[in-house]
Amino acid sequence: MAAPLGWHLYAGAVALAGPAIRRRDVARLSRDGVPPARIAERDGRATLPRPDGPLIWIHAVSVGEAVSVLDLAARLARDAAVLLTTTSATSARIVADRLPPGCLHQFAPLDTAPAVRRFLDHWHPALAVLAESEIWPRQIVEAADGGIPVALVNARLSDRSLRNWRRAPGLARHLLSRLSLIAAQDRRTADGLLALGADPARTRVTGTLKTAAAPLDADPRALADLRHAIGDRPVWVAASTHPGEEEAAIAAHRALLARHPGLLLILVPRHPQRGGDVAAALSGWNVARRSQGALPGPRTQIYLADTLGEMGLWFRLTRAAFIGGSLADHGGHNPLEAVRLGAYAVSGPHVANFSDIYADLAVIGAATVVPGGAALPKALSRMLSQENPPALPPATDLTATLADDLRALVCPGYDPRVRVVAPNFKRRLSGVTATVVRLVPVQAARIPIRAAGPALPAHVPQIPLSSLPFLPMQPAVWHARRNVEMLGGLALRHGLRKPLKLLFTSASQRRHTGLTKWLIRRQDAVVATSHRSAAYLEVPCDVIMHGIDTDAFRPAPDRAALRARLGLPPDGTVVGCFGRIRAQKGTDAFVDALLTLLPDRPYVTGIVMGRAVDKDRAFLDDLRSRIGTAGLSDRLRILPEVPVDAMAEWYAALDLYVAPQRWEGFGLTPLEAAACGVPSVATRVGAFEDLVCDGTTGLLVPPDDTPAMARAMAGLLDDPARLAAMGGAARARAESMSLSAEGDALIAIYRRLLGLGG
């Protein structure tokens, strides 16, 4: 389709005006102290190298927009490098102080053809994300026509902006047709963009990221100094004021002083460079200025906070805040910044930019809209009398949802419709916990899956347990692996009417109790981790074997150095047994076998690593006593449990792994050892016969037969060549049982349950 006349006119005008635009931009940034090298970024000349791997570009023009997308940037940075661009010196300074790990900052290119092309040629983003009203024609066209998906998020256009775009309908359609996603803050913006030609299938109303943004931060030392200086005086804040609003604030302060003696007004102009003009208008008042380093004294009546980036300080000092831009018609500013920090918000009538937020806050009594400045004293006086801060409802995880939608644009195989919650309700380390910790991050590259449980590692995509009652009313799969988690899914579906499909994975290889059978019958689908486990189920099921992450679990490149770091003998042979310490796990059989083998094999060291719960404490004490009596405490060590994500290096330090269980549901440890190039001696329980190829990747022995186990261990310990050959075969076997294959098989079931195909 040919480009419309509006596009050609815009491109021509920018080409002609480009030199003048650049000179003005250089002068502005130079005045603000930006060094010449960084000013060149506006020409698309990067001052940082591009990181390896995929990169997501997020553009937000000003301080407020940039701060609101920081949490989104942090979430996206889990999967890709993130480049955040802004246009002003102030936003650059503030973003630099708050930039999440994995994120970079540069100035955005001017919307000229050379600058945009130079920028894209260097950074090669996999996705371009524009925030709020940043509809720059050249950036959108060059990116989209170059095969880069472009998204407009947190979109908010004023009525005036929409009217201006209606004057260029061809250009508007040309740009909007190139957007892969439009996430609008409100229905008014969405309807306006749809009327201009946005694709309804790609346009949705999500609410504002500013409701999901973290509370404004504040320097603890500065906050303490201010509280000490103010003492117990009452305080109110007039925040983000525009010309004409300072007069209304002063009049309100004069009226409030009659009711609240000693009241201090903190006056915060929207643009700090107006500080001198505002100070001149405060003649007759006792004023202290923040920009001059002053603190409010006992007689200070108005504290002029003519600085930038400190709003988190001011809102923490008050119960009452006037939010400017609302008496003067500027569409208002975000009242949530005040309310989140314990202040009630009052605004004038002009709040179109945040009308939805004001409506929601008004329902819970956290915000008030007054018709004019004359009504401010009454509203503020009521707020100053409040003892408790406003109570906010739980925030929705808009940022996580939006990050999922954006990932779908970066990864063609990612399907944001397949929403899954993987509960893990037990804190202790277990096979189930290990499965969740390792599998969920792999699946999260394909679908929006979140774990929910206590003490999960930070790298696992997760939601707090407290948020489960507030899950969105969207179809999702609840993937349980324990009875208590099946109960939780039933409670959410039938008690809170959440539209959940229930899935249970069973690893058990014994007859289920009556309660478990009752719970299983109420699931929508069941998975067994082995054919043996499936034989104990009385309902149809799919069999999906556990897999292993062969990147995380792999042989050590320098085993001697690894052992030295872990405090193990760098030379000799090390045999290990990991997991819960109790009779069912056969820990005593492993110890007894080594007690017979170690005296004749001084080069061998044994490790037991795990945790004994209170009921197994006597069992553990007996093992220690037997080892001590044999005089082998220095060669057969019992070590404490380590975090799941630290286990791989302990496997890699071994020469031989032993799985001595008397009973096991599935049992992943021989496969984890195999991935690290370590063969196993394992009992014939659980899935061990499927995981260990007898005579090739290890040896299998009957359960609860300590002499047989000792003979198998001795045969390998006394034949280093055979032990090494089995280690190589074990690694090859593990590579055929990938974690991604397990994740893909489960995703097919999730899709089937949600009616999305297999």
Automatic annotation (TrEMBL):
Residues 38-212 form the 3-deoxy-D-manno-octulosonic-acid transferase N-terminal domain. One of its GO terms (cellular component) is plasma membrane. InterPro entries: Glycos_transf_N (IPR007507), Glycos_transf_N_sf (IPR038107), Kdotransferase (IPR039901). GO terms for biological process: lipid A biosynthetic process; lipopolysaccharide core region biosynthetic process. Keywords: Glycosyltransferase, Transferase. Pathway: Bacterial outer membrane biogenesis; LPS core biosynthesis. It catalyses: lipid IVA (E. coli) + CMP-3-deoxy-beta-D-manno-octulosonate = alpha-Kdo-(2->6)-lipid IVA (E. coli) + CMP + H(+). The active site is at E65 (proton acceptor). CDD domains: GT4_PimA-like. Its EC number is 2.4.99.12. Pfam families: Glyco_trans_1_4, Glycos_transf_N. One of its GO terms (molecular function) is Kdo transferase activity. The record marks E132, K210 as: Transition state stabilizer. Involved in lipopolysaccharide (LPS) biosynthesis. Catalyzes the transfer of 3-deoxy-D-manno-octulosonate (Kdo) residue(s) from CMP-Kdo to lipid IV(A), the tetraacyldisaccharide-1,4'-bisphosphate precursor of lipid A. This is 3-deoxy-D-manno-octulosonic acid transferase. It comes from Oceaniovalibus guishaninsula JLT2003.
